[in-house]
């Protein structure tokens, strides 16, 4: 988890293409903006979601990673609330990881939804991004609570459509 602190020195050579593009974007923002706030978002769930592992599970689609993968999730509404609080508190020139507390195995998401995973990839991903800095500022929602609430809401929505 120490490697995911916001102030850790990033080695651009160790980044994926996606991670590298995010890193470059952060550098550009820091160079050209006087007042900046960088939010590093984790996995999200929320209304009108069209892709990610949780969506794929609930819509019986193929998972591209293993069901043994453990990911962090936060609801998009919580991201909006937290972002607003950071701006109102004047937390300029800072970087925050905006992730849920703890992680959840994808097989557990399927179990909670009463769904049997149909097909999945082999790669096991494990995300345990630090939210320590954010936790000093505000309450961080738990990944498992976020997923339980989202599943209930999404399954009810799917039943009525």
Characterization of this structure:
By secondary structure, the chain is of the alpha/beta class. The chain contains six helices and six strands. The protein has helices spanning 17-32, 53-58, 76-88, 106-113, 132-137, 143-160, and strands at residues 37-41, 43-45, 70-71, 73-75, 94-98, 104-105.
Provide tags for this entry.
161 residues; alpha/beta; two-stranded parallel sheet; two-stranded parallel ribbon
> What Rg is obtained from the alpha carbons, in whole angstroms?
17 Å
Class of secondary structure makeup: alpha/beta
What distance separates the N and C termini?
41 Å
Give the assembly state of these chains. Answer: single chain
Strand content range: 5-15%
| Overall average residue pLDDT | 93
Helix-strand topology string: HEEHEEHEEHHH
How many helical stretches?
A: 6
**Percent of residues in helices:** 40-55%
- The largest sheet has its strands arranged as 1-5
Shape: globular
How would you summarize this macromolecular structure in one to three sentences?
It is built from 6 helices and 6 strands. It has helices at residues 17-32, 53-58, 76-88, 106-113, 132-137, 143-160, and strands spanning 37-41, 43-45, 70-71, 73-75, 94-98, 104-105.
Topology:
Layout: H1 17-32, E1 37-41, E2 43-45, H2 53-58, E3 70-71, E4 73-75, H3 76-88, E5 94-98, E6 104-105, H4 106-113, H5 132-137, H6 143-160
Parallel strand pairs: 1-5, 2-4
Antiparallel strand pairs: 3-6
